[in-house]
Design brief:
Elements lengths: L2 H8 L5 H5 L2 H15 L3 E2 L1 E3 L4 H4 L4 E3 L1 H10 L5 E3 L4 H10 L5 E3 L8 H4 L3 H15 L3 E6 L4 H9 L3 E3 L4 H11 L2 E5 L2 H10 L7 E5 L4 E3 L9 E4 L11 H10 L4 E4 L5 H6 L2 E2 L2 H9 L6 E5 L2 H10 L4 E4 L15 H13 L5 E2 L5 H14 L1
Parallel strand pairs: 1-4, 2-3, 4-5, 6-7, 6-8, 8-11, 9-11, 12-13, 12-14, 14-15
Antiparallel strand pairs: 5-16, 9-10
Length: about 375
Amino acid sequence: MSILEQLQINNKQIPEHYLKMSTEELEDRAFNIKNKLGKRLFIPGHHYQKDEVIQFSDTTGDSLKLAQVAAENKEAEYIVFCGVHFMAETADILTTKQQKVYLPDMRAGCSMADMADIYQTDRAWGKLQQLFGDTIIPLTYVNSTAAIKAFVGENGGATVTSSNAEKMVSWAFTQKERLLFLPDQHLGRNTAFQLGIPLENMAIWNPITNELEYEGSLEKIQVILWKGHCSVHENFTVNNVAEVREQFPEMKIIVHPECRHEVVQLADYAGSTNYIIERIQNAPPNTSFAIGTEMNLVKRIIKEHKDKHIISLNQNMCPCLTMNRIDLPHFVWCLESLETGFESNQIIVEEPAASNARLALDRMLTI
């Protein structure tokens, strides 16, 4: 390896020759290193990843499942996480000190997670304590940074997933009168509404203006929703639903709860990524679905279920841009860096953030 390539690794910049390789050469190199490292290497692949990368994954799933499976795999020294930054952080929090977690491209972030940074959250918490006193418990979606998970853990709260959000919100109300839900307002709103909390009892915290957006008596507020969202799921609209209903009257609409409240209310089904996958898997042949979630996954579902008529709820939807940062060149670069000893893009969550974040995760897993 040249000095220039070593410098590029240290600066987390992919050496240019990887970008010029053919798909065949990249795939050959990936299979070769995977075979060489054997059980020392573990590759979790998120559902939203490109097929060119997901073909090498040892397991696929949502972010928390992948982190848990990585933690259970004690034989793996190297965990190359094909997802985004917060997912790799969670894997590092849950795995042992002897295991190392890598992200093939450090630019693979999450716009939703980035909508709540720790400085904004600390500032908001101070102001909310002034307004409501010690009556609030924080919950954070696992789609958040390690710093936010640590904040929640330190303040008695827990993480939630889209699968267990109702259970976790119900638990939160056994602890305090109110909850602060970070960072996705739509999942928080849809979950609370499903549990019977009226929309008029929900306020929005705007981290940009550092203000509570609410009209009415503060005493009525039960849920404070952080003003964040998924840039993919927020793009499914009421008009998309209306178009599908008009064009395909028999088609069932199934969406992720990160979608807007009005879209979820108009859909036939709403649930986590795993819920969507399993609902379609278990549906009889010749049924039809419009899916409101990330396009890479929708295309994969279409490919796997040729006996069903499946479309995206929004035909003009693009894949998650940050998820798509993980491509074959970056993936192979990461693997070859491990093989040569010049390890690139290791994800490390330092103490005490790791311990506090683990508290938030463990509370959820215990419940």
